[in-house]
Amino acid sequence: MTQAEGTIAVPGGNVWFKRVGGGRGLPLLAVHGGPGVPHNYLLSLQRLADEREVIFWDQLGCGNSACPSDPTLWTMERSVAEMDAVIGALGLNRFHVFGNSWGGMLAQQYLLNVASPAASLTISNSIASIPAFSEMVARRKRDLDPATQSAIDRHEAAGTTHSPEYQDAIRTWNQTYLCRLRPWPPELSEAFIRMGAEVYETVFGPGDFRIVGNVSNWDVFDRLTELDLPTLVVAGRYDECDHEHMWAMHQRIKDSRFELFESSSHMPFIEEPDRFDRVMRDFLRRHDL
Question: Does 266 participate in catalysis according to the annotation?
Answer without folding.
Answer: yes
